[in-house]
């Protein structure tokens, strides 16, 4: 394929109400939409919505690297295969401060910019799967599933509001509920978790996300107390750099712990997977393609984890429908679809991107469109 035109458009999404995590409180998300046009007029779409607190570049660096990537792609010819897209991105070669470098553009220093890489890679994958006349998920894996389980993200603060939100989500068909914890006294979090469990009964999965907001001592207390409520798992209970603390905590937790922000550091991967000797530091992994630099690096990690018996699931970085569509295709291509993915966040925004699109969850599932490419009109 030959890239004949590139377009970069700013995007902005406002949240209906602030979303509080242990790391920050979010009221809006900003980023860029990427469009790549091939010689036959097909349009490939990608999205970059950096999330600095999770390990991506800043908005300004993202824009800088996107412009650089797009300059390198214009009028370039790529073979119509996955290898060509993988080979287009070089691994870091100038130390830990450097990101993936697009081989197709003039040599220059490239800051670490996984969100920018993600956007360009997704647009190329969208184009390639359109050219192959297959859905993007089947480009990633021929045996990809047709639908993806999705969890509901509960955003209320007070226990009574959380309970009502949980009941509504279950009535809509969700089997897995997720709520943010940490950043507040444990007594408050326990009251919130208790309210949700009492509201939905024992058969609904409850998943927690601490966003690295507990110290190891706090996490030990939280695991001991919150474990009584029959949790499915807890995402990133301790700070991402504290891998030994995560390892120790997983040894005593009565439910799986999932590494999330820790995946942003390449140096952590061998420890997380147990490849450096010893047992893995977690039993599950949260794949954010925006943070990992694209769908292909995320899929490669998931396959590596599955080869040693560990689970992975996909979540968004509170981003737009283009990114969520790509993440849904990735989720469908994972070795296992047992754990629900966190892709049902469109309802959190004041105005969701198009009024209708196929990636809105229905009864706790996203059914992927059986059309070539990403499945979204430009």
From TrEMBL:
Q: Which InterPro entries match?
A: Enolase-like_C_sf, Enolase-like_N, Enolase_C-like, Mandelate_racemase_C, Mandelate_racemase_N_dom, OSB_synthase_MenC1
Q: Which residues form the active site?
A: 180, 288
Please tell me which top-level EC class this enzyme sits in: lyase
Q: Name one GO biological process term.
A: menaquinone biosynthetic process
Q: Name one Pfam family in it.
A: MR_MLE_C
Picking any one GO molecular function of the record gives: magnesium ion binding
Can the keyword Nucleotidyltransferase be found in this entry's annotation? no
EC id: 4.2.1.113
Please list the residues that bind Mg(2+): 209, 235, 260
Q: What does this gene product do?
A: Converts 2-succinyl-6-hydroxy-2,4-cyclohexadiene-1-carboxylate (SHCHC) to 2-succinylbenzoate (OSB).
Record protein name field: o-succinylbenzoate synthase
């Amino acid at each position: 394929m030959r890239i004949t035109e590139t377009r970069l458009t700013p995007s902005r999404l406002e949240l209906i109400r602030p979303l509080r995590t242990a790391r920050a409180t979010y009221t809006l998300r900003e980023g860029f939409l990427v469009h790549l046009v091939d010689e036959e007029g097909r349009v490939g779409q990608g999205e970059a919505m950096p999330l600095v607190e999770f390990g991506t570049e800043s908005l300004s660096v993202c824009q800088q690297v996107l412009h650089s990537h797009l300059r390198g792609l214009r009028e370039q010819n790529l073979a119509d295969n996955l290898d060509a897209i993988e080979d287009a991105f070089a691994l870091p070669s100038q130390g830990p401060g450097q990101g993936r470098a697009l081989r197709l553009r003039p040599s220059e220093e490239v800051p670490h910019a996984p969100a920018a890489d993600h956007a360009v890679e997704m647009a190329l994958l969208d184009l390639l799967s359109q050219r192959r006349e297959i859905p993007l998920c089947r480009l990633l894996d021929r045996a990809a599933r047709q639908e993806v389980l999705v969890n509901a993200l509960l955003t209320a603060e007070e226990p009574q509001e959380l309970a009502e939100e949980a009941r509504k989500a279950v009535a809509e068909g969700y089997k897995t509920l997720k709520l943010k914890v940490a950043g507040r006294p444990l007594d408050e979090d326990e009251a919130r978790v208790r309210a949700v469990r009492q509201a939905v009964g024992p058969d609904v999965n409850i998943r927690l996300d601490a966003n690295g907001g507990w110290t190891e001592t706090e996490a030990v207390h939280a695991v001991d107390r919150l474990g009584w409520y029959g949790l499915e798992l807890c995402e990133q209970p301790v700070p991402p750099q504290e891998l030994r603390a995560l390892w120790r905590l997983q040894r005593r937790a009565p439910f799986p712990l999932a590494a999330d922000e820790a995946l942003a550091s390449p140096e952590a991967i061998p420890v997380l997977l147990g490849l450096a000797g010893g047992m893995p530091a977690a039993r599950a992994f949260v794949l954010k393609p925006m943070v990992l630099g694209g769908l292909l690096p995320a899929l490669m990690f998931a396959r590596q984890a599955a080869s040693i018996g560990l689970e992975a699931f996909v979540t968004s970085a509170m981003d737009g429908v283009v990114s969520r569509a790509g993440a849904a295709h990735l989720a469908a291509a994972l070795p296992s679809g047992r754990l629900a993915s966190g892709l049902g966040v469109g309802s959190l925004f004041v105005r969701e991107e198009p009024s209708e699109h196929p990636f809105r969850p229905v009864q706790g599932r996203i059914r992927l469109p059986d059309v070539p490419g990403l499945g979204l009109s430009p």
